[in-house]
Amino acid sequence: KGVSFLSQKGCQPGNIVSVILKNCLEYLILYFSSIRLGTILNPLPYNLSSNDIIKYIAYIESKLVFCQKKHYKDLKPHFKELVLVIDEKENGNFLKLLDNINILDITDFSPLGNEPACIYYSSGTTGNPKGIVYSHKNMIANISSIVRGFKWNKDDCHLIFLPLGHTASINYSLLPCMYCGGKIVLFESFWKIRKNFWKYIEKYDVTYIQVVPSVLFSILNTHYKGYKRKNLKKFKY
Asked: I need a labelling partner for 119 at 20 to 30 A (CA). Which of 135, 140, 181, 198 fits?
């Protein structure tokens, strides 16, 4: 239904679809729907200011933009095709919207290899952020090598809490798990689950997490007396 929704909004292979969302189920639906339709997904960090978002999206001429309430009011005057994705119980909930979509008979996009799949922006640490294009071929080669290098398989479970608007969780958890048949557990952020972090590790038999230094420091200072640490294989930061 996500593919049909994008198609009904006029999206075609090669169009750019921008997404500014917190970690949520809707994000995953849009990500894989875009890949399947052949549109180019443009994830942007949720913590960006509206002014930066307007600048970046105007530059790449997005066909369709998805955001949440935080940015909607500021973005609405600037983009004709702006979809409000609400994860609270309010009118306009995207999942409810999809329930009412008629499924279209759409041929799955079959890339020859070098067609763009995603456009990310660099962090801008040493200069203005730059658009970085990932082709379908690049993504497949990258993910297959990561799975081989880490020796992941269908028995692995990845806990994701870093923002999906960056490449880290996508490249080291989401896509590898899809590739090898593993499992993912998705949360909005580490700070939402810090109190129960070790309980979730044990509950879901998590084998892998990816962190940043501030999160790693907090994890090492978040104690859970009953955890035996028998399953968690790898930290990556």
From this structure: 181
